[in-house]
Amino acid sequence: MNKGLTAKGRATRQRIVVATALLTREKGAAETTLDDVRAATATSKSQLFHYFPEGRSDILTAVAEYEAGQVLDVQQPFLGDLSTWESWQKWRQAVLDHYIELGQRCPLGSLTTELGKSSAEARAILTTLFTEWEEALFLGVRTLTSAEPEAARIRARSILAAIQGGVVMLQATGVTDYLTAALMTSTDPLRPTAEGTD
């Protein structure tokens, strides 16, 4: 989407995307209007349509892409190498710290409950996010436990579902305990295997 834009144009477009992401976290995608975006970014209507020709749907798709990248980026470098129990613990703590800090303004909650429903393009971005995330967890489970592929896939999906459920409850209630319990419970079964190989 940035093809043909100058460096200044790319920076302006990114500024609009980031500001809109913050708006959707605060207000929800359904309640975020183009007027809200214009006010938050001090841009004109013509500027918005220059960078996002399809208007609101284009902006929300760009926000979904941005937020999906944020979800994975904050888990690095741990998500990229879950080969030891220590790396799993560091990854788990990074996830908890991130969502506890953001609370009800977390991008994952916004993605799954709001942005993922805004268009087919946004849904595809969300699907890609979960596929990449699941694959990283799957590889980590396989490396750490030598589990059979099917069992490792089920474990990876259960961890991912635990995070998602905990985040949705966090967004609804503002309480982080659900996420902490879900993440600990879904990953603790990996601990005995890890400790037994030390």
UniProtKB/TrEMBL annotation:
A Pfam family recorded for this sequence: TetR_C_13_2
Alphabetized UniProt keyword annotations: Transcription, Transcription regulation
Signal peptide: none
Domain Transcriptional regulator LmrA/YxaF-like C-terminal: start-end pairs: 103-181
Protein name: TetR/AcrR family transcriptional regulator
